[in-house]
Design brief:
- With 181 residues, the protein is an alpha+beta fold.
- Helices cover 29% and strands 33% of the residues.
- The protein contains five helices and eight strands, in the order βββαββββαβααα.
- The strands form two sheets. A four-stranded antiparallel beta sheet has the order 1-2-3-4.
- Strand 2 (29-41) and strand 3 (46-54) form a beta hairpin.
- Mean pLDDT is 86; it is low at 1-5.
Length: 181
């Protein structure tokens, strides 16, 4: 049943990665507040994350969504995976992302999986080293995706075409007499 004022209009989907409860002890007892870590994306290369705090969970999630929409980045995707391997560190967390063959799926923990799936990446291998704090894992994964570049972007940035070096086929090498003994 949809609310008339939907939480996420547009084409963006959201995943609530973590909700934490914080208790403040006051004279009359404990006063609770909530923190929500939210990732939003359109599954077509745009992804962002946000962290919201409020006295009730729905308001914390809403604030997280609003912040996430302000932090959207464009992620380069080559077919169904990332263009190259990358390692990114945030705090005590280090995240390694590797491209994978079609059909592999997203091999990642819950925090990294949320960012990768909402970015639209279908095949990737990941490994988290160090701290597995969800906030740091999301930030490190987001940072890694932000640093990815395609071959065309490298060429444009450097102003020099990237030359692909291919090995000679064995048959061609034998014909030219360049085969090793």
């Amino acid at each position: 049943m949809a609310h008339p004022r939907s939480r996420v209009p547009d084409e963006f989907e959201e995943i609530v990665v973590k909700v934490k409860r914080c208790a403040k002890v006051v004279k009359g007892g404990k006063r609770f507040s909530f923190n929500a870590l939210v990732v939003v994306g359109n599954r077509q290369g745009r992804v962002g994350w946000g962290y919201g705090k409020a006295n009730e969970v729905p308001f914390a999630v809403e604030k997280g969504i609003q912040e996430a929409k302000k932090n959207l980045i464009q992620v380069p995707i080559v077919q169904t995976t990332i263009p190259h391997e990358i390692r990114e560190k945030f705090g005590a967390t280090s995240v390694l992302l590797r491209p994978a063959c079609r059909g592999t799926g997203v091999k990642a923990g819950a925090s990294a999986r949320a960012v990768l799936e909402l970015a639209g990446i279908h095949d990737v291998l990941s490994k988290v080293f160090g701290s597995t704090n969800p906030i740091n894992v999301v930030k490190a994964t987001y940072g890694a995706l932000g640093k990815l570049r395609t071959v065309a972007q490298f060429e444009q940035q450097r102003g020099v075409p990237v030359v692909e070096r291919r090995k000679k086929p064995v048959a061609a090498a034998v014909e030219t007499g360049a085969a090793s003994p």
